[in-house]
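Pasting as-is:
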Amino acid sequence: MAEKLESYEFSGSPHRQYPWDDWCDGSIWRIVCGEDYTVRTSSMRSQLAIKAKKLGMKVRTSQVRNKKDELVFQFYNEEDE
């Protein structure tokens, strides 16, 4: 029989594993694939854009290709441009 739970700690959600409060503070951040995120770099760029839209912000991104894929990004408000 199905059981209704009062609460449950879900794990593995990509939206919870990232420090969004820090990343969305307007600073310029560099994140490394395999260290800071585990999805494809194109997927991470999409997640950044989705998060910015949800917050009513914009995000600049630049992919750095070296030994490991890296993303450099900055969340900002339109009026700050």
